[in-house]
Amino acid sequence: MNKVRFGHSIVPYLFLLPQMAVVAVFFYLPAGEAVRSSFFLEDPFGFSSTFVGLDNYADVLSSTEYRRVAIFTVWFTVLVAFFALAIALLLAVKADAVLRGAKTYRTLLMWVYAIAPPVAGLLGILLFDQHVGPFVDIASWFGWTLRIGVNYYDTAFAMITTAVWYQVAVNFIFFLSGLQSIPRAVREAALIDCRSGLRRFFTVTLPLLTPTAFFLLVINVTYALFDTFGLIDPMTKNEPGNNPVTLVYKVFLDGFRGNDLGGSSAQSVILMIVVFALTVVQFRFMERRVHYA
Amino acid sequence: MKPYGIAAGLAAGLSLLSVNSAFAVTEISWWHAMGGALGETVNEIATNFNAAQDEIVLTPVFKGTYEETLTAGIAAFRAGEQPNILQVFDAGAATVIGAKGAVKPVQDLLEDAGASFDIEDYISGVRYFYADSDGKMIGMPFNSSAPIMYYNEEALEKAGVEAPKTWEEFEQIAPKLKQAGYIPLVQSHLTWEFTENFFSRHNLPFATNNNGYDGAEGTKLLVNTDGLKMMFAKLAAWKQNGHFEWYGTGWSDNQTPFEQGKVALWVGSSGSFGGLTKSATMPFGAVPLPYWEAIAGEDGYQSFIGGAALFAMAGKSEEENKATAKFFEYLTSPEVQLMWHKSTGYVPVTNAAYELAKQQGYYDETPQAEIGIQQLNMKAGEWTRGYRMGFYVQIRDVMNREYGKLFTGETTVDEAFKAIEAEGNQLLERFAKTGS
After folding, report:
1. In terms of DSSP bridges, do strands B263-269 and B183-187 run parallel, antiparallel, or are they unpaired?
2. What is the pLDDT of residue A47?
3. Which of B257, B273, B277, B436 gets the most CB atoms within 10 Å of its CB?
4. For position A234, what pLDDT does the model report?
5. What is the model's pLDDT at position A211?
């Protein structure tokens, strides 16, 4: 035991205290409460509650509707994360190569980031509206009757498009700064060795971008799972009906709209477990492939 | 909206302090879901009430949609910060009434305050919807509406037909309306207009346990039944041959094409009247919601009310409850009811107010405004007083989902109603467990 040891002092714990207090009040306490109430069926006003054991979980997991929502959430997350990252990377690479008017170009691409999610959702509705939406007109040129709120898949298409559009700006900013932090010497060396731009990108630039890309992957999956709530809410117009919704939105629907506290809590506990598992997987298996310069 | 409410309350409080510090002023609050023009009318009622007397100051606060208002009220109740008056919509009534001790029945509230109360003063269609199984009124019907059918006058003229009284008549005229270049039929709320009111218009049972009034335990939906299935099989068939169109679950997505003059008949709310006069691009009229003569006989039965009621929350001092009772008395006075009726299109809830409107000749100028109240005053039956089901918001969501699947060809009538019955009954069973 020749570790360096500092004298015991409570000072470091005091410094940690505010942070721990915030985490305890805003995460552990509500999370614990969610776990507790997921084992009860409670009347909304809190007069009486019945312990039902794992019934809430059984009801949720055996529901075909819940399965449908879960499957949609997986597709939604994969598609949103993939397209948001791919489009942003393409734009960043191209923007990085622009010499004249680079600043204006970049600012224009980042602009969307300043819009609040519900506003983006409203813009999505306006663009895809059945009666006045311009995108519906454009789709009709190709013989596609795009009907948001009527056709399940059309609504899903509109939601994914809006969610991708909104997230591209954030990804673009990170990818661009990632590209700019690649040492000039490395790029020039690569230029001498290889003439093909595409090949240079895949063998030199992309590996050097992996720390950024990995970080963004985590961020984008979280975004698609949780932060798209603000987009989905206005796009379903407060009427879930036959529209696709994500798991987080379903927690809101059952808990806040339907006042089913037990069922909603069980769903949010399931979601917590899923996110925990996902994070472990991402860091365990994906981070190995990340190349930190 | 909350800061506004607080500011208004503060301002009102301060001004009263300075003017009337000798009097003890009782402050009461009213959380409601009336946005836009409706909210302005609510504020006007509150202002007039505050000006009419100097013992009570009422502060109305807008809380968002019906669902949001109910959730806010529940959360506030759990924190002991509930308002005196909470507006709760039809589908949320079971939640509030089912939780014994959350509200003070309006009948008790008024009688305790020494006010006269007679349930017979209320028009027949609204009387028992928010009452318990013994007929005691729990919530005060406030913004009450009926689903009625609006027609595009130009369309009917062009097709040379009359607005239909029954669905059988509709089947006769639909091809002519289509030929004249119109979408014959559109509606805005499949659950309220075509499901709940289907049972009321035809006097059919909607759920066991006396439509749920006799308690949540063991209540089961009766939706997987021939009558309702026939209605939706017809709707699906009409959609197939272009006699009916569906624009999703959102209310206004379906109202818009009617306003644009593309649609001949639109089933909306009697409360839509005020808005339509401003937004419709063509002259329009209204008739009662059609019914199947084959099921209901010669005339249809009255419909359930839509809209919402005001509930006096429990846990308030006697003084405040008295003030709330005073306001309810004011609100149901014929003059206030008439003003509300005229500016919003919602029906007046008392017979006296209806009489006053007739006396003043209001319906001679605007006959469309009377259709809703006429429909609520039609003959009553065993199953027309209302329904009481917990987690009904979710049950409506299940119905809307299945109806959506039906109209996009993803499911069949049989499958849809089997799913609604199964999931609905499961929700009812869950709700019954919350209360025990």
Report:
1. parallel
2. 87
3. B273
4. 86
5. 86
Q: Using one digit for the tens of pLDDT, what is the confidence trace for B79-116?
A: 999 999 999 999 899 889 988 889 999 999 999 999 88
Quick check: A147 contacting B, CB < 8 Å?
Answer: yes
**Nearest residue in chain A measured CA to CA from B95:** A44
Q: β-pairing, B306-313 with B140-145?
A: antiparallel
Chain A contacts of B100, Cβ < 8 Å?
47
> String of b and e for A36-58 (b: at least 16 CB within 10 Å)?
ebbbbbbbbbebbbbebeebbbe
> Which pLDDT belongs to residue A293?
53
Distance from CA of B398 to the nearest CA of A (A): 7
Which of A47, A52, A237 lies at the smallest CB-CB distance from B101?
A47
| Residue whose structure tokens are 């001498």 | A192
The rounded distance, in Å, linking the Cα atoms of A169 and A175 is 10
Question: A259 and B101: CB-CB below 8 Å?
Answer: no
Contact check, Cβ <8 Å, B397/A50: no
C-alpha neighbours within 13 Å on the C-beta side of residue B34: 27
CA distance A249 to A233: 8
Q: Do residue B250 and residue A239 have CB atoms under 8 angstroms apart?
A: yes
Look at residue B20 in the predicted model and tell me its pLDDT. Answer: 46
A237 in contact with chain B, both atoms CB, cutoff 8 A: yes
Q: Does an H or E element contain B265, and which? A: strand B263-269
Nearest to B302 by CA among B192, B380, B227, B382: B380
pLDDT of residue B171 exceeding 80 = yes
pLDDT value of residue A3: 60
Q: In this complex, do B404 and A49 lie within 8 Å of one another by their Cβ atoms? A: no
- The minimum CA-CA distance between B291 and chain A, rounded to whole Å, is 25
* Mean pLDDT, chain B, integer: 91
- How many A-B residue pairs are in contact by the CB < 8 A criterion? 121
Contact A238/B at CB under 8 A: yes
A217 token code pair: 């992957």
pLDDT value at residue A291: 66
Question: Do the beta carbons of residue A163 and residue B288 sit within 8 Å?
Answer: no
Q: Has residue A37 got a pLDDT over 60?
A: yes
Question: Of the candidates A41, A43, A149, which has its C-beta nearest B250's C-beta?
Answer: A149
Which residues 45-84 of chain A have a CB within 8 Å of chain B?
Answer: 45-50, 52, 59, 63, 65
Nearest CB to A241 within list B71, B95, B400: B400
Helix (H), strand (E), coil (C) string for chain A = CCCCCCCCCCHHHHHHHHHHHHHHHHHHHHHHHHHHHCCEEECCCCCCEEECCCHHHHHHHHCHHHHHHHHHHHHHHHHHHHHHHHHHHHHHHHHHHCCCCHHHHHHHHHHHHHCCHHHHHHHHHHHHCCCCCHHHHHHHHCCCCCCCCCCHHHHHHHHHHHHHHHHHHHHHHHHHHHHHCCCHHHHHHHHHHCCCHHHHHHHHHHHHHHHHHHHHHHHHHHHHHHHCHHHHHHHHCCCCCCCCCCHHHHHHHHHHHCCCHHHHHHHHHHHHHHHHHHHHHHHHHHHHHCCCC
Contact B55, B25 (CB under 8 A): yes
Q: Work out the minimum CA distance from A263 to partner chain B, whole angstroms.
A: 9
pLDDT at B209 > cutoff 70? yes
Average pLDDT (A130-149) is 89
pLDDT at B17 over 50: no
